[in-house]
Amino acid sequence: MSRALITGITGQDGYYLSKLLLEKGYEIHGTIRRSSSINTSRIDPLISEYSKSGQLKLHYSDLLDSASLASIINIIKPEEVYNLAAQSHVSVSFKNPVYTTQTGTLGALSILETIRHSKKDIKFYQASSSEMYGGGSQEKLNEESKFDPKSPYAASKVFAHNLNQIYRDSYDMFCVNGILFNHESPMRGETFVTRKISRAVGRISLGLQTKLTLGNLDSHRDWGFAGDYVKGMWLMMQHNRPDDWVLATGETYTVKNFLEKAFNCVGLDWNDYVETSEKYLRPNEVDYLLGDPSKAKKDLRWKNETSFEQLVKIMVESDIKLAEQEKVLLSKGLLVPTWEHPKG
To answer: Which residue has the higher pLDDT, 115 or 331?
Structure first.
């Protein structure tokens, strides 16, 4: 049985990657940060199904705690390590630049150093980001395109990306960088624009919310489905040589496009419900991102399987179900509304 360690297992990508690897028969170990509240809600179904058999095990650790990371790796001796953990919200990275930068850089460095000194051959996956490109030009971006980070988050990702290449070249380690463009799902955090939209659409369609406030509606993004992208992560680790690969759809849409598709799912016009505010604008906007996945298609036989329209539909339908549950709880007085502009 193959054994993998996943940092950031409780996040969107952590859920989909764990699910994929568990179904492939892997033994999965994941790191979670100790806190006063339980934060495993995304992976609770996986815990219920796989923890009793010992196929899924969780460990308390933190990317800033190099000793605990080294201890976990040395004890479980995984064949593969996927570093997905990060403070990944770009806007938040401007408000918490030190923490964002530390987690984005020191975590990768600690893991690489542990692997370098390990007696076991361990493959390492570093989660890079399309934000590293900066979005300054309207062109398809590939593995050779110039990085021009526009946020503390993006800068930390460039550092870890370059460091991973250095360790690969200097120590003959199996280190891969997955440069993933925006990938979404019903598991996406609710502060990210796509999920903020789908949650609002579900609530508005049931009369629980009247308005949605967003920032830049004209920014272009290459949006895919997270479930498709984690397959690409795994394929990178199975390739005969380590390298860097872009995962993207090769199509770009604006936030307005996402709004239109999402509200169309419930037969509403987004213009009647959406407001904009400078509060949600970044200090340094990334206007245009479009990826070129040609190399991944050629080398890995990977492809995006979910269209933009299908992605939006999946997210809205999931959040309508959540809104229905909220409405029941509200009717019973078991929930206090916390979203924008509640009715009543």
So the answer is: 115
Active site residues: 129, 131, 153
Q: In degrees, to the nearest 5, what angle opens at C-alpha 150 toward C-alphas 144 and 153?
A: 95
Cα three-residue angle 9-12-16, rounded to 5 degrees: 75
Asked if pLDDT for residue 284 goes beyond 90, the answer is no
Tracing tokens 């979670």 back to the chain, one arrives at: 32
Sorting pLDDT into bands at 50, 70 and 90, what band is 342? Answer: very low
SS3 for the chain is CCEEEEECCCCHHHHHHHHHHHHCCCEEEEEECCCCCCCCHHHHHHHHHHCCCCCEEEEECCCCCHHHHHHHHHHHCCCEEEECCCCCCHHHHHHCHHHHHHHHHHHHHHHHHHHHHCCCCCEEEEEEEHHHHCCCCCCCECCCCCCCCCCHHHHHHHHHHHHHHHHHHHHCCCEEEEEECCEECCCCCCCCHHHHHHHHHHHHHCCCCCCEEECCCCCEECCEEHHHHHHHHHHHHHCCCCCEEEECCCCCEEHHHHHHHHHHCCCCCHHHCEEECHHHCCCCCCCECCECCHHHHHHHCCCCCCCHHHHHHHHHHHHHHHHHHHHHHHHCCCCCCCCCCCCC
Identify residue 332 by its one-letter amino acid code: K
Q: Which residue has the tokens 């992208």?
A: 229
Cα dihedral 49, 52, 55, 56 sign = positive
Mean pLDDT for the stretch of residues 310-328? 97
Cα 107 to Cα 17, 37, 288: the distances in Å are 19, 23, 29
Inform me whether the pLDDT recorded for 338 exceeds 80: no
- Burial of residue 175 (number of CB atoms within 10 Å: 0-12, 13-18, 19+): buried
Distance CA 208, CA 200 (A): 9
Give all domains of the chain, ordered by start, each with its CATH number. 3-185+224-247 (3.40.50.720)
